[in-house]
Description:
Blueprint: H1 24-112
Amino acid sequence: MASNQAKTGIGLNEKSSFSSTEKPVPAALTMMIDSMTSMVERAKIDLENADQRARADLENIDQRARKDVALLDQRAREDIQKVDQKARKDIAILDKRAREDHELLRKVRQAKGLAS
């Protein structure tokens, strides 16, 4: 048989080539920890940026809402003022008609001799 065939397994007494020295494992762990630390730091920065954007968006929405409420309040006041003016005119017309009716009634009573 050829002696250059690959081994299919490692025996119990044989050392693996992957862990034969202690240096590659700590270096790999250090690289993995560094990578994870970097990812966590980037995620933290991304979260802070998203939080800042959300706060800015919320502030913009709040300012727009305050402007909208102020505009609605102004329009409502104008509408109330218009309704009040119309009601005052209507009351003046009703008062005038009532006085005219009262005067007419007084004249009719006088004419019939029923002075009040």
